[in-house]
Structure formats: structure tokens, C-alpha cells
Write a structure and sequence with these properties.
Low-confidence stretches: 1-6, 311-315, 318-322, 391-397
Shape: globular
Number of domains: 2
Mean pLDDT: 78
Strand content: 15-25%
Radius of gyration: 24 Å
Number of strands: 14
Number of helices: 13
Helix content: 25-40%
Structural class: alpha+beta
Largest sheet: 12 strands, antiparallel
Distance between the termini: 14 Å
């Protein structure tokens, strides 16, 4: 018998705002060498300035000196996309050598930038130094490199960051290169579901407003085009109770919200319960009304999942971690690893990986004895929808 329901709401990842270069308080750590980030490609169901973010090439521009939780990216809506959305080396070279480095030199005194790199070739070699020059095999990836830029000049006058973005925009126009035109900035607040977690919507709104005002200049943020991820979780305070969302509830929610082709999958041993995830069409009534994405799942899934989702585990399908390894399943994985898309595996390696997976799941189950797990729903909505959001909209029983 459930003793007590405790709902919560919290802003999750991907709070997206369009920003001007002057939005960051105190100063900025500019990122001269950026790495690919899969979240920007796979987890954006929104349009800004008429462009789908997960279809635009982008480059990490940097983070605020006092607001590292708000990284900013520059999006290039006219850059041709082939595979990944990160700028190619040739595009990064053009971006840095023709736009960024000259703009920094124009705006900032040499005393601020004498320790900064001066070319793409220099920054590329520095980013890959550990990877290429190390005598060990520890370092497999390049590094992202950041250099500080203040918002004030040597006389203490603010506004340097605004001048920097203006200079960059002017150079992009002067170059006349098509893929540089109409570039815009977006800041995305990741991993704040615990930091901004509150029991009531009113308290959460206050916490988010305080976070923005504390770390950013609100005058330079266009909240009209902002999107916010919000979530509501329910669980019982009684020990040892696991709540599960039934597949019927998932399908009903997706149907009501107009989710196009929702992804459904179940987790280990839950049978008729699992996760649903998907976005609405950008031309749909729901999108026009301020809804972009919906997700609902059972919190217990984290008990079985791998923290690093990019890790090339043998059993990426969550259904398989707690099931028996049959000969048919073995043949499936052997065949799947022969096409060059994944790491090559033989029978012995698959058995070793399966044994390790079983051991990990067993240890997690033992450690979770007596713990309770709830259910969660998440929405991605416009800032306007968030401003009128009612607690009952997030309540699930």
C-alpha cells in the first residue's frame, strides 16, 4: 500500500536561450578547439530563428568565467552537413584564422591575449599534444582548450564581450562565405536536475530566475526563443517499493500529445512497463502551442544502465542485460560485429563481456535492496509555456 506520494518538478538539461556575446558576467573562457558533442545532434527537437538545432553545424564558443554551467555554442545554419555537426578541420581553420583570432586581436589589448594561440595549426597541435606526444596509451582524444577573456578593458570599462561578438559578426559578413552567414549563439544549461530541483513549481521558477540573474545578464538574453526541459517525478517514501509505468500509459500519453513515431522500449524484467521518448513535428499544433518533446520512464532503469552511454559495451540493447545468453543471441552479436560498424568480437570476448554485465547487474541489485524507485515524466516546452505551467500538468498517478 502506498503511504505517501511526493511529487517534484525540476528543470532538466537543455535549457536553450539565444544570447548576445555580452550575456556573461565578469568574463568569458573562449574555446579555441572544440570536440564533438552527441547531445547537440540527437537531443534537440526545437527550432530557433527558423532552423532545427540538431541539423545545424555548430562549434563550442566557450563558457562564462562565473557561469561555467552555461556553455555557449555558435550555430551555422547554412554550413553543409555530411556526417557529424561539428565543423570540419578545414572549417575550423577558416573560422579561427579568418574570424575569431583577428576579432580577438582587434578588441583586446595584447596584455590580455599574449598567451593566446594565434593560428588553428598552433591550437590543433596543442589540443592533440597528449594524444600524439605521450609515450603511454592513456590519452586517446584531443583536449578542448580554453583561454580567458575579461569583459572589461584595462581602464575597467565593461562591454568587451559585446564588442568581440560584433567584430566577429562584421568579419563574417565581410568574408561573404555562405556557410558563415546568419550564425547565432545558443547557451544550453546541462545537468541541472539536482541543482534546480524543487518540490513546487513556484519555488522552481524562482530558483531558475535567480540562476539566470546570478550568472548572466538578462538584458542580453532572448527568452522569447527559449526552451525549457521540465520534469515531474513521483515515488513512495515506503521502503522497497518500485513504481513502474505501464506500456498502456506510455502509449496513451504519446497519443494525447501527438508524438510522432515515439520510441518505446522495456527494461530488464519489467515486461509490460518501460520508457517512451519522442518529439512532435515542428509543423504540428502541439509544437505551435509550445511542446517539442516528451519522455516518460521508470527511474529503476538507472540501476541497470551504464553511466557513459558512449561506452562500446557488447550489450547496448537494454533488454539483454538481464536475460540468458542463448546460441541465437550469440550468433546475432557475432554477425553484428562483422560489418565494421562496431568493435570486432569473437565468441570468447562476447562471453567475457556477458559475464561482466551479469556481475555488474547482480551487484547493483544487491546494493539496491530495500530502496524505492519512482516514475518520471519530462517535457520540453517554450519559455512562455513554462511561465504559465501548472503543477497539475505534471501530476501522474
Amino acid at each position: 500500500m502506498l503511504q505517501k506520494w511526493v511529487p517534484w518538478v525540476g528543470v532538466l538539461s537543455n535549457c536553450s536561450y539565444w544570447v548576445d556575446g555580452a550575456a556573461y558576467r565578469e568574463g568569458f573562457s573562449i574555446c579555441y578547439y572544440s570536440l564533438w558533442r552527441p547531445t547537440l545532434e540527437s537531443n534537440q527537437f526545437v527550432k530557433m530563428f527558423g532552423y532545427r538545432l540538431n541539423r545545424c553545424k555548430n562549434q563550442r564558443l566557450g563558457i562564462g568565467l562565473t557561469s561555467s554551467a552555461w556553455p555557449v555554442y555558435v550555430f551555422f545554419p547554412h554550413a553543409p552537413v555530411h556526417k557529424r555537426l561539428l565543423l570540419s578541420d578545414d572549417q575550423q581553420k577558416f573560422w579561427l584564422d579568418r574570424i575569431v583570432f583577428p576579432s580577438v586581436k582587434e578588441v583586446y589589448d595584447v596584455g590580455h591575449t599574449h598567451h593566446h594561440p594565434s593560428s588553428f595549426a598552433e591550437i590543433r597541435d596543442k589540443a592533440r599534444a597528449k594524444q600524439l606526444e605521450s609515450t603511454s596509451e592513456i590519452h586517446k582524444r584531443p583536449m578542448e582548450l580554453f583561454y580567458e577573456l575579461p569583459d572589461v578593458d584595462f581602464e575597467g570599462q565593461p562591454g568587451q564581450l559585446a564588442k568581440l561578438w560584433d567584430a566577429m559578426q562584421q568579419r563574417m559578413r565581410q568574408e561573404g562565405t555562405e556557410w558563415l552567414q546568419d550564425a547565432f549563439l545558443v547557451t544550453i544549461r546541462f545537468d541541472c536536475k539536482q541543482v534546480l530541483r524543487r518540490k513546487f513549481v513556484a519555488d522552481l521558477k524562482m530558483a531558475l530566475d535567480e540562476s539566470i540573474d546570478r550568472e548572466l545578464h538578462r538584458d542580453f538574453i532572448n527568452l522569447r526563443d527559449a526552451w525549457v526541459d521540465i520534469g515531474c517525478e513521483e515515488f513512495t517514501q515506503s521502503p522497497g517499493i518500485v513504481l513502474l509505468r505501464k506500456s498502456l500509459c506510455n502509449k496513451a500519453d504519446a497519443r494525447v500529445l501527438g508524438i510522432r513515431k515515439p520510441l518505446e522500449y522495456t527494461w530488464q524484467g519489467t515486461a509490460d512497463a518501460g520508457t517512451i521518448w519522442g518529439g512532435v513535428g515542428v509543423r504540428s499544433v502541439q509544437y505551435t502551442g509550445g511542446l517539442a518533446k516528451f519522455q516518460a520512464y521508470n527511474v529503476i532503469r538507472h540501476l541497470f544502465g551504464i553511466i557513459d552511454r558512449s561506452f562500446p559495451a557488447a550489450f547496448r540493447d537494454p533488454n539483454l542485460e538481464a536475460l540468458g545468453l542463448t546460441q541465437k543471441l550469440m550468433e546475432k552479436y557475432l554477425n553484428a560485429n562483422q560489418d565494421g560498424s562496431g568493435w570486432r568480437a569473437n565468441r570468447e570476448r562476447i562471453l567475457t563481456a556477458y559475464a561482466a554485465t551479469k556481475s555488474r547487474v547482480r551487484n547493483a541489485l544487491i546494493a539496491a535492496t530495500g530502496k524505492s524507485y519512482g516514475v518520471r515524466k519530462e517535457w520540453r516546452v517554450t519559455w512562455w509555456q513554462w511561465s504559465v505551467f501548472d503543477r497539475e500538468q505534471a501530476h501522474h498517478t
